[in-house]
Please model this.
Amino acid sequence: MDEKVLREILERLARIETKIEEYPQLRSSIDRAEELSHLAHNKANINESMIKELKEEVRQINENSRALRNIVYTSLIGMLVSLISRFIHF
Model:
């Protein structure tokens, strides 16, 4: 074998060794990224359920607001009818 080929083989082996040494760090990074993605997914699911609950609460508040408004209107109409009937009797 000539020296040039031998040198090229040694350089390639050195590159392969470097890549093999970096593998555990890459694996660790991949594992951490996977863990973070699971956490983000769980939080997104929690947020989705909280949003649904809040929408339901807003709907109930709107219904209660309508009911209260109707009661106020009915009371005002009743007061007006009462005042008009008093003025009519005098």
